Backbone:
């Protein structure tokens, strides 16, 4: 069935359907009598017409052409592709969670509010922060929310006009500078030093009263712990700035340390990374934001609170930045994260980080003789290799990534972080077995040999996927982003 | 090792062997780079771990405290609706090849997801009458924010005019976004149940980047987009329409009425209400603006053997490449929800979606007529889709409390956002039977007696 290559529009035949609707039990409205002529649709939308068995076969076949964590090892660096527990899926589908409306009176959704409240409390403890909002939909929205809080804080101090710059290390996720720009800041990039961490000398040069704050991931995207973190925080606080923690890499430090202990003022978390909620092929995620107590008044509203024995929604925060997203965030995702935290407990979460770090270091050690390591020291939950040795032989990091697909693995993140040439970023996570790590290392070592002996096989990879390498340049030049009967069948 | 750590496969032997390979004697050596005084000495003070069935019981209890639409009859809408979802939708979503994958960076191993999203984009284009759509945004309200941002950046103008007929939360998100981008959000009031066109005409000028209208609007009424487009065009302002995609099955596509950007939320198309999320924003434009779209877009291409294949395209707009110059900071989106809506639209199909939309119109019309007949006054002057405003002789809170006793979740109270005392926004979807509608009205009648 991997040869199946039809679009759902192409298997459509008039008058088929996969849905069952009742006859109306009320009089039918004649549209042309009720609606003005110009607002009535003339040409029906060309949606597919398929039977239910066809529908299921179409999507099941598509799923067969898709690789997820349940299919195999997914070492996509910086994305924490850990196992997605099944009980989480079941719980999110309980009718009492899935079929409730965001505008129901709060007394009819006490269970939902209780879950949100308890999750906030858990995240406060895990990060050491004073208050948490679950409203942001994903990491990037959490970043933007955090930066808007920074902006309002400086405004409250009458300094928003002068504090216009955000410092971002050159190893940061692309979302960091992008979120800062969207929050209306100017981005100043801080270079990394030879050991892969923030260059303190370069940082000091940028310090001034025009700085609103600094964004930092710790461990950073090279998988290295910023051991000068206390000094960095002290420097930023010293000039009146705030320090923001990008929680993308929290999987390395659960129960070991907290962003609050390191001195951070604001943090966002990616529940779809650290707290096991599925990545959904791109989303939905959830990006809660936590802040130290003095910033709590600026958090998005409404806030979920407990008054006596009742859970309530409170919007009476005049300094709040307002609303960043509809309703209360991605509730369905938050249910899964809550279920995970309750499954693991404190000891379990700590073991998560210990195993994640152990696995990354072990895999790194196995690969060290064959690929260039970005840095010599122990890593945390992920590490970066450089494919420079292989590039000299004419094979790029992207080719190696594609070849891995033939071995039954998803590929690592490539060409990120930008500061490592031919970067191959690997995050094995704690949920993989040692056997999987050994087998994956074997595959990457075999590929390194192929690069030396039979490079063509790597250059032409993948060979075993449902399609061979896709022409990305053509996709962008001959832009085709929707099915069109007349243009199709190339 | 306890049952609670069933996701962690390391055996003591595995651990020993890995540590030996690393030539370290304990795990703590791997954490030595965290200064000792920054290391937690006590376990996190979160509640104890629960085994699977105890946890399931606890969560079921929590869920059962909520009054859900499987047991209660919902007349509550205001942007989120209790609609029919065919069983097929959740069966497809439960395929873990889909839900345990991430953004399809490696196209060759992600063709299923990519094709499904390409089909989703096509269906959104069909419904909206636009040329290109992205593969989802967080929700309809954030999509509205992204649309305003696109307008401000592309026109280099500073004002966004938004009708008060746009969802209050959509306007709230817009205001939050505008602070970062330093543009002004100007609200235009309603004249009755639709946008005040005289007022709108006065407000639009050379500084107007875009006019934003909801279709049908928050009161359920269908705005005359042709008239608003004409006003926007006079000053070359962009025309942004936030549309309920289900209504578009029967309403003229905004793309045929002059919309430059059409956004909205696909929640009515197969997504459970889920206390407000995850839902799924959509974003559609005409050809001229394709390269300005925020978020991920799937394009069709060929593989090296000439076979059709799909891939994320126009990635140079995005944050992971362009960083601060990107069209948006979005990385994760709502892909799984987009997949759900695509399955839903495929299940209902060309005729089914129209039929479902017609049922919504019929039921809402029946209920409004019945209310009028019984002496309650429905305020909408313009034609409406599946929602309308009814004025009652008692407070909405009181009414909803009485309805609740009959296992009915009543409508949305319009007092706080619109100052309309005793006005309820009532939603009537295809799910509501004549019997349920009559029961609702009987409760109101009972309150008078």
Residues:
């Amino acid at each position: 069935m991997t040869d199946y290559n039809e679009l759902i529009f192409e298997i459509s035949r008039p008058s088929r359907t996969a849905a069952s609707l009742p006859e109306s039990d009320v009089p039918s409205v004649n549209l042309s009598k009720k609606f003005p002529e110009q607002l009535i649709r003339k040409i029906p939308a060309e949606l597919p017409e398929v039977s239910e068995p066809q529908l299921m076969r179409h999507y099941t076949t598509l799923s067969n052409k898709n690789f997820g964590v349940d299919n195999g090892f997914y070492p996509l660096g910086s994305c924490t592709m850990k196992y997605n527990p099944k009980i989480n899926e079941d719980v999110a589908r309980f009718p009492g969670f899935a079929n409730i409306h965001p505008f129901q009176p709060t007394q009819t959704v006490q269970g939902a509010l209780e879950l949100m409240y308890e999750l906030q409390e858990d995240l406060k403890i895990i990060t050491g922060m004073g208050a948490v909002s679950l409203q942001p939909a994903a990491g990037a929205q959490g970043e933007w929310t955090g930066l808007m809080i920074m902006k309002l804080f400086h405004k409250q101090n009458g300094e928003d006009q002068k504090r216009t710059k955000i410092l971002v290390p050159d190893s940061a996720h692309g979302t960091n500078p992008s979120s800062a720009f969207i929050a209306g800041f100017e981005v100043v990039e801080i270079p990394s030093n030879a050991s892969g961490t923030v260059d303190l000398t370069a940082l000091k040069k940028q310090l001034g009263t025009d700085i609103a704050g600094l964004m930092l991931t710790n461990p950073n995207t090279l998988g290295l712990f910023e051991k000068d973190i206390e000094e960095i925080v002290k420097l930023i606080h010293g000039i009146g700035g705030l320090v923001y923690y990008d929680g993308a890499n929290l999987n390395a430090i659960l129960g070991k340390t907290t962003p609050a202990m390191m001195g951070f003022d604001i943090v966002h978390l990616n529940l779809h990374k650290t707290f096991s909620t599925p990545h959904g092929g791109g989303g939905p995620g959830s990006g809660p934001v936590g802040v130290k107590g003095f910033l709590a008044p600026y958090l998005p509203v409404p806030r979920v609170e407990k008054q006596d024995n009742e859970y309530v929604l409170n919007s009476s925060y005049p300094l709040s930045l307002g609303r960043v997203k509809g309703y209360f965030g991605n509730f369905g995702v938050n249910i899964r994260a809550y279920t995970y935290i309750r499954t693991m407990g404190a000891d379990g979460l700590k073991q998560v980080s210990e195993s994640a770090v152990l696995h990354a270091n072990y895999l790194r050690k196995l690969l060290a003789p064959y690929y260039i390591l970005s840095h010599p020291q122990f890593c945390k939950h992920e590490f970066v290799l450089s494919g420079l040795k292989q590039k000299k032989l004419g094979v790029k990091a992207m080719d190696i990534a594609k070849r891995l697909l033939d071995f039954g693995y998803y590929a690592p993140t490539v060409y990120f972080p930008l500061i490592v040439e031919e970067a191959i970023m690997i995050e094995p996570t704690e949920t993989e077995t040692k056997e999987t790590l050994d087998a994956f290392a074997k595959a990457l070592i075999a590929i390194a040999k192929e690069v030396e002996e039979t490079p063509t096989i790597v250059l032409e990879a993948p060979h075993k996927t449902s399609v061979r390498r896709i022409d990305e340049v053509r996709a962008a030049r001959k832009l085709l982003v929707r099915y069109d009967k007349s243009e199709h069948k190339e | 090792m306890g049952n609670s750590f069933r996701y962690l496969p390391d055996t003591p032997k595995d651990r020993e062997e890995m540590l030996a390979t690393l030539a370290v004697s304990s795990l703590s050596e791997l954490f030595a780079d965290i200064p000792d005084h920054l290391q937690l000495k006590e376990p996190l003070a979160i509640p104890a771990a629960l085994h699977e069935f105890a946890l399931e019981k606890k969560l079921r209890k929590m869920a059962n405290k909520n009054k859900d639409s499987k047991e209660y009859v919902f007349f509550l809408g205001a942007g989120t609706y209790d609609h029919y979802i065919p069983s097929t939708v959740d069966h497809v979503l439960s395929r873990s090849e889909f839900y345990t994958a991430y953004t399809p960076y490696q196209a060759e191993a992600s063709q299923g997801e990519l094709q499904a999203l390409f089909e989703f984009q096509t269906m959104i284009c069909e419904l909206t009458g636009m040329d290109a759509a992205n593969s989802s945004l967080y929700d309809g309200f954030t999509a509205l924010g992204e649309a305003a941002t696109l307008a401000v950046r592309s026109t280099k103008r500073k004002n966004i005019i938004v009708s008060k007929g746009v969802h209050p939360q959509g306007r709230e998100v817009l205001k939050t976004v505008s602070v970062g981008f330093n543009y002004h959000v100007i609200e235009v009031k309603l004249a009755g149940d639709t946008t005040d066109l005289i007022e709108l005409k006065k407000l639009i000028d050379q500084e107007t980047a875009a006019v934003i209208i909801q279709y049908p609007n928050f009161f359920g009424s269908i705005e005359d987009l042709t008239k608003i487009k004409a006003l926007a065009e006079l000053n070359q302002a962009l025309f942004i329409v936030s549309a309920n995609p289900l209504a578009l099955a029967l309403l003229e596509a905004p793309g045929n009425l002059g919309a430059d950007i059409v956004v909205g939320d696909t929640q009515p198309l197969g997504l459970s209400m889920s206390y407000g999320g995850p839902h799924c924003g959509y974003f559609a434009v005409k050809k001229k603006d394709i390269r300005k779209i925020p978020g991920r877009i799937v394009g069709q291409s060929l593989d090296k053997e000439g076979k059709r294949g799909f891939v994320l395209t126009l990635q140079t707009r995005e944050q992971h490449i362009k960083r601060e110059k990107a069209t948006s900071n979005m990385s994760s989106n709502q892909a799984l929800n987009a997949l759900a809506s695509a399955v839903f639209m495929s299940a209902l199909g060309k005729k089914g979606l129209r039929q479902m939309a017609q049922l919504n119109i019929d039921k809402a019309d029946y209920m409004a007529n019945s209310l009028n007949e019984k002496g309650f006054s429905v305020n909408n002057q313009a034609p409406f889709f599946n929602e309308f405003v009814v004025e009652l002789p008692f407070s909405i809170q009181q009414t909803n409390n009485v309805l609740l006793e009959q296992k009915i979740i009543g409508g949305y109270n319009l007092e706080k956002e619109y100052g309309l005392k005793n006005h309820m926004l009532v939603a009537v979807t295809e799910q509501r039977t004549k019997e349920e509608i009559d029961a609702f009205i009987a409760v109101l009648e009972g309150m008078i007696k």
Remarks:
- The first helix of chain B runs from residue 12 to 21.
- Residues 55 and 61 of chain B are 10 Å apart (CA to CA).
